[in-house]
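Q: Please design a sequence for this.
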Protein backbone atom coordinates (compact mmCIF):
# COMPACT_ATOMS: atom_id res chain seq x y z
CA UNK A 1 0.00 0.00 0.00
CA UNK A 2 1.15 3.53 -0.73
CA UNK A 3 1.96 5.91 2.11
CA UNK A 4 3.02 9.52 2.42
CA UNK A 5 6.77 10.05 2.82
CA UNK A 6 7.03 11.51 6.33
CA UNK A 7 10.69 12.42 5.71
CA UNK A 8 9.99 14.58 2.61
CA UNK A 9 11.39 18.09 3.20
CA UNK A 10 9.08 21.09 2.96
CA UNK A 11 10.02 24.76 3.11
CA UNK A 12 8.77 26.63 6.17
CA UNK A 13 7.55 30.10 5.22
CA UNK A 14 6.20 33.28 6.76
CA UNK A 15 2.75 34.57 5.75
CA UNK A 16 4.31 36.45 2.81
CA UNK A 17 5.75 33.19 1.45
CA UNK A 18 9.37 33.95 2.33
CA UNK A 19 11.31 30.81 3.26
CA UNK A 20 12.49 30.88 6.87
CA UNK A 21 13.44 27.22 7.33
CA UNK A 22 12.68 23.61 6.44
CA UNK A 23 10.93 20.67 8.10
CA UNK A 24 9.80 17.18 7.19
CA UNK A 25 6.25 16.28 6.18
CA UNK A 26 5.95 14.41 9.46
CA UNK A 27 6.96 17.50 11.43
CA UNK A 28 4.59 19.74 9.43
CA UNK A 29 1.63 17.37 9.91
CA UNK A 30 2.10 16.54 13.60
CA UNK A 31 0.41 19.61 15.06
CA UNK A 32 3.55 21.78 15.07
CA UNK A 33 1.70 24.45 13.04
CA UNK A 34 4.80 25.21 10.99
CA UNK A 35 3.52 27.17 7.99
CA UNK A 36 4.34 25.36 4.73
CA UNK A 37 3.27 26.28 1.17
CA UNK A 38 0.92 24.29 -1.07
CA UNK A 39 -0.66 24.75 -4.49
CA UNK A 40 -4.31 24.10 -5.38
CA UNK A 41 -5.82 23.93 -8.86
CA UNK A 42 -9.59 23.94 -9.36
CA UNK A 43 -10.31 22.37 -12.76
CA UNK A 44 -13.52 23.39 -14.49
CA UNK A 45 -14.74 22.10 -17.83
CA UNK A 46 -16.44 24.32 -20.41
CA UNK A 47 -19.85 23.20 -19.03
CA UNK A 48 -18.99 24.86 -15.70
CA UNK A 49 -18.61 21.60 -13.81
CA UNK A 50 -15.83 21.28 -11.23
CA UNK A 51 -13.51 18.28 -11.10
CA UNK A 52 -12.82 16.87 -7.64
CA UNK A 53 -10.37 14.18 -6.60
CA UNK A 54 -11.16 11.43 -4.12
CA UNK A 55 -8.46 11.14 -1.47
CA UNK A 56 -7.37 7.53 -0.90
CA UNK A 57 -7.68 5.83 2.48
CA UNK A 58 -3.90 5.77 3.02
CA UNK A 59 -3.49 9.59 3.09
CA UNK A 60 -2.30 10.99 6.42
CA UNK A 61 -4.67 13.98 6.19
CA UNK A 62 -8.43 13.66 5.37
CA UNK A 63 -8.55 10.13 3.86
CA UNK A 64 -11.59 9.08 1.77
CA UNK A 65 -12.86 12.64 1.28
CA UNK A 66 -13.51 14.56 -1.94
CA UNK A 67 -11.09 17.43 -2.42
CA UNK A 68 -9.73 20.07 -4.79
CA UNK A 69 -8.75 18.58 -8.17
CA UNK A 70 -5.06 19.14 -7.48
CA UNK A 71 -3.44 19.87 -4.17
CA UNK A 72 0.20 19.43 -3.41
CA UNK A 73 3.10 20.65 -1.37
CA UNK A 74 5.72 22.95 -2.80
CA UNK A 75 9.10 21.28 -2.52
CA UNK A 76 12.10 22.96 -0.96
CA UNK A 77 13.65 25.23 -3.62
CA UNK A 78 10.63 25.03 -5.95
CA UNK A 79 8.55 28.00 -7.19
CA UNK A 80 4.76 28.12 -7.01
CA UNK A 81 4.53 27.88 -10.82
CA UNK A 82 6.84 24.85 -11.10
CA UNK A 83 5.12 23.09 -8.19
CA UNK A 84 1.72 23.69 -9.80
CA UNK A 85 2.81 22.22 -13.14
CA UNK A 86 4.47 19.24 -11.41
CA UNK A 87 1.48 18.46 -9.20
CA UNK A 88 -1.06 18.78 -12.04
CA UNK A 89 0.99 16.40 -14.18
CA UNK A 90 1.56 13.94 -11.30
CA UNK A 91 -2.04 13.85 -10.09
CA UNK A 92 -4.13 14.25 -13.27
CA UNK A 93 -1.74 13.65 -16.19
CA UNK A 94 -2.40 17.16 -17.55
CA UNK A 95 0.55 18.97 -19.12
CA UNK A 96 -1.11 21.70 -21.20
CA UNK A 97 -3.28 24.08 -19.20
CA UNK A 98 -3.49 27.79 -18.48
CA UNK A 99 -3.77 28.54 -14.76
CA UNK A 100 -5.43 31.67 -13.45
CA UNK A 101 -4.14 32.81 -10.07
CA UNK A 102 -6.97 33.55 -7.62
CA UNK A 103 -5.23 34.38 -4.32
CA UNK A 104 -3.32 32.89 -1.43
CA UNK A 105 -4.39 32.47 2.18
CA UNK A 106 -3.42 30.67 5.38
CA UNK A 107 -5.40 27.52 6.20
CA UNK A 108 -5.15 25.96 9.64
CA UNK A 109 -6.53 22.66 10.89
CA UNK A 110 -5.88 20.88 14.17
CA UNK A 111 -2.79 19.22 12.64
CA UNK A 112 -1.21 21.70 10.24
CA UNK A 113 -0.92 25.24 8.86
CA UNK A 114 -0.60 25.83 5.12
CA UNK A 115 -0.01 28.85 2.91
CA UNK A 116 -2.33 27.93 0.03
CA UNK A 117 -1.82 29.34 -3.49
CA UNK A 118 -5.16 28.92 -5.34
CA UNK A 119 -5.48 28.68 -9.13
CA UNK A 120 -8.29 27.76 -11.51
CA UNK A 121 -8.30 26.53 -15.09
CA UNK A 122 -10.78 25.40 -17.75
CA UNK A 123 -9.86 22.04 -19.21
CA UNK A 124 -11.83 19.74 -21.53
CA UNK A 125 -9.13 17.19 -22.32
CA UNK A 126 -8.54 13.74 -20.90
CA UNK A 127 -7.91 13.48 -17.16
CA UNK A 128 -5.99 10.45 -15.96
CA UNK A 129 -5.95 10.31 -12.14
CA UNK A 130 -2.74 8.84 -10.74
CA UNK A 131 -2.46 6.16 -8.09
CA UNK A 132 -1.96 9.04 -5.59
CA UNK A 133 -5.75 9.48 -5.87
CA UNK A 134 -8.76 7.23 -5.51
CA UNK A 135 -10.15 8.57 -8.78
CA UNK A 136 -12.14 11.70 -9.44
CA UNK A 137 -15.02 13.15 -11.43
CA UNK A 138 -16.72 16.36 -12.53
CA UNK A 139 -19.44 17.69 -10.21
CA UNK A 140 -22.24 20.14 -10.91
CA UNK A 141 -21.88 23.25 -8.74
CA UNK A 142 -25.36 22.70 -7.28
CA UNK A 143 -24.43 19.09 -6.41
CA UNK A 144 -21.43 20.39 -4.45
CA UNK A 145 -23.56 22.99 -2.65
CA UNK A 146 -26.04 20.26 -1.62
CA UNK A 147 -23.25 18.18 -0.02
CA UNK A 148 -21.54 20.99 1.91
CA UNK A 149 -21.37 20.31 5.64
CA UNK A 150 -22.18 16.61 5.25
CA UNK A 151 -18.62 15.26 5.76
CA UNK A 152 -18.27 14.48 2.04
CA UNK A 153 -15.52 17.02 1.32
CA UNK A 154 -12.35 18.03 3.10
CA UNK A 155 -12.81 21.06 5.37
CA UNK A 156 -10.12 22.84 3.36
CA UNK A 157 -12.05 22.34 0.11
CA UNK A 158 -15.33 23.53 1.66
CA UNK A 159 -13.69 26.64 3.07
CA UNK A 160 -11.97 27.46 -0.22
CA UNK A 161 -15.03 26.71 -2.34
CA UNK A 162 -17.29 28.97 -0.28
CA UNK A 163 -14.83 31.83 0.29
CA UNK A 164 -13.01 31.99 -3.05
CA UNK A 165 -14.27 29.69 -5.82
CA UNK A 166 -17.97 30.61 -5.75
CA UNK A 167 -16.94 34.26 -6.21
CA UNK A 168 -15.19 33.40 -9.48
CA UNK A 169 -18.29 31.85 -11.07
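A: Design:
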Amino acid sequence: MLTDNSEELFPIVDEDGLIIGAATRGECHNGSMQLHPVVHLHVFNSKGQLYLQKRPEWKDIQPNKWDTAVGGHIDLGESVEIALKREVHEELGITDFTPKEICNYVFQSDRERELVFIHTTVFDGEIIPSDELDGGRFWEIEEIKEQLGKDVFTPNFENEFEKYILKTL
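Q: Thanks. Anything notable?
A: The chain has a mean pLDDT of 93. The domain at 9-168 is CATH 3.90.79.10 (Nucleoside Triphosphate Pyrophosphohydrolase).
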